[in-house]
Amino acid sequence: MDSTKKIIAEVFNEIAEGIESGTFSKKVKIGLTTFGSEHGIEEMIKAAEMAKSKYGDFDVVLIGPKVDCDLEVVEAEDAEDGHKKMVELLEKKQLDGCVTQHFDFPIGVSTVGKLVTPALGKELILATTTGTTSTNRVEGMIKNAISGIAVAKAVGIKEPTVGILNVDGARAVERSLMELQHGGYDIKFAESLRADGGAVMRGNDILTGTPDVMICDSLTGNLMVKIFSSFTTGGNYETLGYGYGPGIGENYDKLINIVSRASGAPLICEALRYCATCAKNHVLIKASTEFKLANTAGLNNIIDKLLAKDKPSVSEKVEIPTKKVVTFAIPGIDILDLDDACKSLWREDIYSESGMGCTGPVILVNEQDGDKAIEVLKKTGYK
User: Active site at which residues (predicted)?
Assistant: First the structure.
């Protein structure tokens, strides 16, 4: 009798949560930009139709040229216009998320991918795969762990285990995450399958999917996604996995999942599924919650200690100009120079932000300041 009451209570709680969140009877809408694929617009339409046929519990909205199909289409003139329409639809809450081939995420936001590992066919969350969480490698990987945990919980893993890929900075990341754990943040470390064990993972652990969440820098993660998604096809057509995943940051407010220009319909179909699951389970809210918990456990103090040794004794202060809308991207700046490059523009009263696109670091300025900003960066030796 008690167990029956418990089940009934759980059902009513789910109904109440569904009504409160607005997702109980409403399908989520996921956008798909169709310009930019190396395989053509037809491949993108095929992916959307596959998702509709295979799943059906979410709607797909195409953003691109007018096409003859049974899906909703928001018309766009080209890839740039498509991205503007995508952002507008997300900001107006007319889309719950979107899958696209490229996006200039701000520094502090990077994507959490998902693989299917070849040894056991297990899904592995890879944090992160594009974008840059921090220009400091170790800080970035520490925060990637929190982002990865948030996404794991959003896709249904209640207590995800975490491993740290054995790349430069892995031991410092391990020490910092253990300190965060001792401060009260609930993080569960995986054990490597190799004889010496430990939370620092080997390449073997990627193949088997030892942890639920594997932590690495985004360049390594990007390489892993490319290899795992296309190793059966020769590299020019990605078929396996879920793509590069949603952009996650401490206070980021748009659900944008990334796929490659080389991604084929089977992978894009699963990327749409991945995005829809993240939307239904409020991954951005979960990320915000995880970062709050981590901050309470001392994350900021851990990061401050980590960065203190890298700070010069006297730090130049530059006044930041009045904020403007930044949509003009200037590529070709080394990631280690991003902060100083921004300061060089601030000195000339040009508002700028640093960002990271799929092709590398960018400086973001207002459209009207684009030409002047490029001249300043050339004069100061950053471009």
Answer: 358
